[in-house]
Amino acid sequence: MRARHEREREFRRESIIEATEQLLNEKTFESITMDDIAMRSDFSKASIYQYFKNKEELIIAVFARILRTECHLIEERCLLETDPIQAMRNYIKIQFESIHRNPWSPKVIATFPFRDYHAENCLSDLYNQKKKLITGIIQRGQTEGIFIISDLDIFTNMLLSASVGFANYFSTRMSSDIQSPEIEMFISTIIKGITKGEQ
Amino acid sequence: MRARHEREREFRRESIIEATEQLLNEKTFESITMDDIAMRSDFSKASIYQYFKNKEELIIAVFARILRTECHLIEERCLLETDPIQAMRNYIKIQFESIHRNPWSPKVIATFPFRDYHAENCLSDLYNQKKKLITGIIQRGQTEGIFIISDLDIFTNMLLSASVGFANYFSTRMSSDIQSPEIEMFISTIIKGITKGEQ
Amino acid sequence: MRARHEREREFRRESIIEATEQLLNEKTFESITMDDIAMRSDFSKASIYQYFKNKEELIIAVFARILRTECHLIEERCLLETDPIQAMRNYIKIQFESIHRNPWSPKVIATFPFRDYHAENCLSDLYNQKKKLITGIIQRGQTEGIFIISDLDIFTNMLLSASVGFANYFSTRMSSDIQSPEIEMFISTIIKGITKGEQ
Amino acid sequence: MRARHEREREFRRESIIEATEQLLNEKTFESITMDDIAMRSDFSKASIYQYFKNKEELIIAVFARILRTECHLIEERCLLETDPIQAMRNYIKIQFESIHRNPWSPKVIATFPFRDYHAENCLSDLYNQKKKLITGIIQRGQTEGIFIISDLDIFTNMLLSASVGFANYFSTRMSSDIQSPEIEMFISTIIKGITKGEQ
DNA sequence: GATGAATGAGACTTCATTCAT
DNA sequence: AATGAATGAAGTCTCATTCAT
């Protein structure tokens, strides 16, 4: 049957992605060579090209996986949450956890050529999906009169970028304890900043 | 006279730095070659090595210049400002302007090997100097009972990283108009988040 | 089968070594470029780096081969020889022949950084092996009361260096006829110098 | 007066030569850069080219000085000596001392392109002069019936090359004490080898 | 499908030498 | 005469990618 074939192929793709993720914890994507990936994934260099057209497609796959995971988590822990403030708290925490798991991700995104990032590859779709989820949370908060009113798109972008910015900072320089009060402080500041009135 | 020689040398160093900055608006530092820099700066490749020991020293010089400029601006527009809130607003604006001028800077910092960045080269000194200036602003705000109380260092790091994070996002994806209301919104959110009580 | 792969790889390594040896007959190792070697060995420059980590490893391999050959020859033509004088004659001849085949070898050794030569690479081992063989010959001569008595190590070094010194001289400046009477004269002088009494 | 001018120029040439000699004690001639020499000699790199046409001429000057010194010493300590054996002993000692003073000299000669060495530059003249002096010693020894009879030129070359070969070996690997018994052994062996009969 | 081998293109860096002051 | 500056030419090495088995 073709199905098993397909499943095995997918499995091998994943091993390569995982090897790459491991390596990204150790050095820049630019400085990781196909040899490194081959070594780590226990495939030959040439074999990798049977699963990914080139280095770029590989990194895209890596990020797609992360974004997909983030989306799942947001759906699970934010969309079902009735309190918008708590939903927002949860999103920020998810963002932290994600960057905590893959501290290199903001760095790599930062260097990833933008044109491609926003164009033909699946990344932009996933990225928009994630944004849409966050937008949903904000919208609910605004509708319920809890969050301040302002342009939705801008609001979302602001939250996303500030969260990622701080999480990145946090993950590279401070204790990597994800429960630390520093994070709570950031969350509170943001929540305070975006909620109406006294809170 | 020695002095003129010295001045001329410094001037040529600056041209190379400027050429590099220009190129950084077009592509990653990693993907910029010494040939590119030579071409753009109208020096021969070999000449560049008379002014910078290697590519790394060059990028360090580029960043040192940016940090120095930022420090000067903060001193001018924040330290003299008596109102802490206004001082803080000004700092965030300066950060935006800086990233607006050099949109690549967060990206490049992101890929710059961190060990070195925080160690023996002059960058760490400059970076700490900048942090100290911001800490000063916050401290004043806290002393005057305007800003919320919390660990100074964490407070500073949070502000710095969130601002850079958002400014980076802003500069690469939205209209590059520095007067846009989006920025005002970010600033307000942050200010609201860090000031005590009603405001 | 793995074995054939291995053999083929070894064969290709040898071609590169041979190309290098050829070139060494034409110019200094320092002045031979990887391009030269690539050209001569009919590999691409990059390919060479699959067989030798760098230029230094290549030269080490070249010398290892020579030393190995010398050791084999000494074993064959000296150790089996019962007459110590004849054994010694044979060694000196072997040394001449070797330098006659690879006239550049003393020159290259001369410029080769000594630390490495006497340290972690396989060369020092081979070199000591060769010395041990010569020491063996001398020792036998001394035991049998034919050679003069003196410190073994010094004796060995003297013979080695004087032979190499003269062979080098001979090969670079005189007719390269290996049968020439000049060589016979050197051999006689040395033999006369190291044998006891009348001879 | 022109004379002082000339003398000063000669003096500056000598400083550069001396700087080069110093450096040769530390690294290969090929690896010494004109910058090194400039630094060490306290001239600017460009200035050196006013005293030597190029790097090659400089190294030639270095060797010319050494050969000239050797010739002087041979004249002083060998030609005046009436006993040929003692004269020969003295020559070998001079050779040792010379190489002891400039241990790099055989190495550098070894790598020096031979064509030039034997052609238009002054080195060949000096070299021949040195050879002629040694030939003189041998000739006297033969005339007086002390040394064995054989072709003069070959005899000379053999002595020269074997002495240089061993002295080189000695200077790089053993204790650098010039009085050591090892040297005496080499000298005795050679003397024994070239003198007639019982000795 | 898997992989050992091969490589073109290109990066950084060095250095002897010349030029202009 | 002296020298800071400039550079062409060259060298070593790396890497993503393709090919042949």
Automatic annotation (TrEMBL), chains A, B, C, D:
PROSITE patterns: HTH_TETR_2. Residues 33-52 bind DNA. Pfam families: TetR_N. GO terms for molecular function: DNA binding. Keywords: DNA-binding. Residues 10-70 form the HTH tetR-type domain. This is Transcriptional regulator, TetR family. It comes from Desulfotruncus arcticus DSM 17038.
